[in-house]
UniProtKB/TrEMBL annotation, chain A:
Membrane topology: Multi-pass membrane protein
Similarity-based family: Belongs to the complex I subunit 4L family.
Binding partners and assembly: NDH-1 is composed of 14 different subunits. Subunits NuoA, H, J, K, L, M, N constitute the membrane sector of the complex.
Protein name: NADH-quinone oxidoreductase subunit K
Top-rank lineage group of the source organism: Bacteria
Protein's gene: nuoK
Gene3D superfamilies: 1.10.287.3510
Catalytic activity: a quinone + NADH + 5 H(+)(in) = a quinol + NAD(+) + 4 H(+)(out)
Lineage, broadest ranks: Bacteria, Bacillati, Actinomycetota, Actinomycetes, Kitasatosporales
Originating organism: Streptomyces caatingaensis
Role this protein plays: NDH-1 shuttles electrons from NADH, via FMN and iron-sulfur (Fe-S) centers, to quinones in the respiratory chain. The immediate electron acceptor for the enzyme in this species is believed to be a menaquinone. Couples the redox reaction to proton translocation (for every two electrons transferred, four hydrogen ions are translocated across the cytoplasmic membrane), and thus conserves the redox energy in a proton gradient.
Keywords noted in UniProt: Cell membrane, Membrane, NAD, Oxidoreductase, Quinone, Translocase, Transmembrane, Transmembrane helix, Transport, Ubiquinone
UniProtKB/TrEMBL annotation, chain B:
Domain NADH:quinone oxidoreductase/Mrp antiporter transmembrane, chain residue ranges per copy: 185-490
Cellular location(s): Cell membrane; Endomembrane system; Membrane
Membrane topology, as annotated: Multi-pass membrane protein
Species lineage: Bacteria, Bacillati, Actinomycetota, Actinomycetes, Kitasatosporales
The protein, known as: NADH-quinone oxidoreductase subunit N
Alphabetical keyword list: Cell membrane, Membrane, NAD, Quinone, Translocase, Transmembrane, Transmembrane helix, Transport, Ubiquinone
Recorded GO CC terms: endomembrane system; plasma membrane
EC number, as in UniProt: 7.1.1.-
Amino acid sequence: MNPVSYLYLSALLFTIGGVGVLLRRNAIVVFMCVELMLNACNLAFVTFSRMHGNLDGQVFAFFTMVVAAAEVVVGLAIIVSVYRARHSASVDDASLLKL
Amino acid sequence: MSHAAAVHRLWTEFPTAAAVDAPKKIPAPHIEYAQLSPTLIVLGAAVLAVLVEAFLPRRARHLTQLALSVVGLAAGFAAVVALAAKGYGTGKAHAAAMGAVAVDGPALFLQGTILLVALVAVLGFAERRLDPAAHGRPVDSFAAQAAAVPGGDAEQEAVKAGRTTSEVFPLLLFAVAGMLVFPAADDLLTLFVALEVFSLPLYILCALARRKRLLSQEAAVKYFLLGAFSSAVLLFGIALLYGYSGTVAYSGIADVVSGAVRTMDPALAATTGNDALLLIGGAMVLMGLLFKVGAAPFHMWTPDVYQGAPTPVTGFMAAATKVAAFGALLRLLYVVLPGLRWDWRPVMWGVAILTMLVGAIVAVTQTDVKRLLAYSSIAHAGFILAGVIAVSPDGVSSVLFYLGAYAFVTLGAFAVVTLVRDAGGEATHLSKWAGLGRRSPLVAAVFAVFLLAFAGIPLTSGFAGKFAVFKAAAAGGAVPLVIVGVVSSAVAAFFYVRVIVLMFFSEPKGDGPSVAVPSPLTSTAIGIGVAVTIALGVAPQYFLDLAGQAGVFVR
C-alpha cells in the first residue's frame, strides 16, 4: 500500500482533533481532541520514517508518547481540580476572567 | 529504495545466523557534559529539590528550597559565564551533544538572561510577609494545598496545619531547565521536548494562587488547553518538516531548503524536497512559537493567564518565557529557514504590525493592572518581532538586548503589583491605585520608573532597547514597520502615562489599598529591577556590545 495514504489519514485525524478543540465544550473532550492531534502527528512521523527509510521519525514518535503521557498527568490534575471547585468541566462556564 | 529496505528488514524479518553472530556495535553518542553544564546544574538542583520535598520535615523545607534554588541558579549562571569566557560564545561556538544543543553566542546570552531572571523571580516566590500570618505561621502567595477545594474544609484544615506548597521551587527549576534548552535547541526533537519541559510546570504554577484561586485555576485550564493545542500544531509542523527534509536537525533542514545538500542519501533524495510540506510545516512550527511569544493573533491566552496566575509566577512567566521563546524563534528563522525568508518575511511583517497595534490599542481600555501589563507585553512582543524581521546580525543583537532589558522591567513591575493590597489580597483594579503616589511615594515612584521604561522614555532601558530594535529594522528595509512601531509606542505611552497621572495627581480614596511592607526578598527583587532599568538606560553601550558579540548563530 502506498504510504502516502497514511499521511492523508493523519492529516484528517489532525483536522478532526483541531475542529474538536475549537468546537467542543467539555474540557475533558477538548483535551482528548488534543491527544488525537498528537496521535495524528505520531502517525505522520512513522509514515515519513517509512518513506524516508530512516529512524528519526520513529524515535520522535516515542518522545511524543512520553510527552503526551506527561501532559495527561498535568492536564487531568488541573481539570479535576477545577471540576471539584465548580462542579463543571465546561470551558464556557470558566468565564470569570473576562473584562 | 534499497537503503530503506535494508533498514526495515531489521524488524520485519527473522535475523539470519550471520547477523546474529556479528552484532553491530552501536557507537555511544559523544556528549560534552561541560558545555551543557548550565542546564545540567539547574536540572540537578531541581531533582535535589524534589528529594528535599520528600525527605525533609515541613518546617525546614521553605528555607532549604530557597537556598537550593538560589545556589542552583547562581551556579548555572556561573557556568554560563565560564563557557562564555572560554570563547564558546564566539570562536568555539558549535553544536554539542551530537548536534542537539547549540553552544553559541545567542544561546549563552539568553541562558544567562533566563538564569538571572529566575534568580530574581525566586525571591518573589519565597516572599512570606505580604499576607498576614495564618494561625501564627507566615504564608506565601501559593495555596496551602493545591488539591483542596478553594474555601472547603480540606483547605481550612491545610491552612491550620500550616501546609505550604513548597513544590513551587522544584517546579520553577524544571521550568528554567526547559527554558535554558529551548533557545539552544539545534534540532526539532530537542525543541519540542524543551517546550514541554518548561510549559508543563508553568501550567501547574498558574493554578496555585492562595487568594482568588478560582481565577487562578481558570487561568491554568485556559493556559493548559491552549498551550497543548499550540504544541500539537507545532508538533504536526515538525512532522511535516521532517517529511520535507528527512531529518530533524536544523542544519540538515537548512541544507535541504537552500538546495546545498552535501551528502544526500539516494533513498532520501527520492522522497524529500516537497515544497508544500516545507511551507505548511514551517508555518505551523512558527505558529507554535508565536503562541509562546504571545504575538497576535495567538495572544488570546495572555491577558487571562497573566491576570489569573499568582503574581510572582506571572512576573517570572512574562519575563522568562518571552526570552526563551524569542530565542527559539530567532534560531528557527535564522538557522533553519533563512533560505525561505522571502516567504516568511511578509507573514512576519503582518504578525508584527498586528501584534503592536492590538497590544497598544486594547491596552488603552483595560482597568486591571495585571491585564494592562499583559497587553503591554503583547505590544512589546510586536516591537521585538520588528527586530527579528531585520534578518541581520544587528537585528539579532538588538533583540537580545531588548529581551534582557524588558525581562527585568517586567519582573520589577509585577513585584510592585504584589505590594499594593487590600483586604481581598492584591488590589489590581486601576481605580484602587488612584492617589497611590500621595500615600506611598516610593512605591509609586518605582512603578512609574517601570512604566516609563515600558513606554520607552530616554534614560530607561526601554528606550535603548526600542532604539536598537527599530534601528536594526529600518536598516533591514522595514521602514513602514518602524513607523507603525513608533505610532503604537505613542499609543502605548498614553496609557502608561495615564497610570502615572492616576497615581500622582488624583485624590486617594478613603477605602484605598495599603502598601504592604515586604521582606528584604521582594525589596531586593524590585531594587534589582530598578537598578538594571536605569543602568541599561544610562549606559547601554557595554551591554549592547555584549549582545553584539553574541549575535552570531552557529550553523
